[in-house]
Amino acid sequence: MVCSAINDNFSVEAGYRYMKSNMQDTITVSGVDVKLEIDPISNWFVGVNYKF
Fold it and tell me: What is the 3-state secondary structure (H, E, C) of the chain?
């Protein structure tokens, strides 16, 4: 993550998030088998912050 102050009140930030996950499971809900799969999650973000 990169964060940079523009002045005393404003700053900007940007970065990349990655969450490694590899889950596979089967659960039964009301007599029906439900297969769950979760793959790795990644995203880019940009933000502007203001301090009062």
Answer: CEEEECCCCEEEEEEEEEECCCEEEEEEECCEEEEEEECCEEEEEEEEEECC
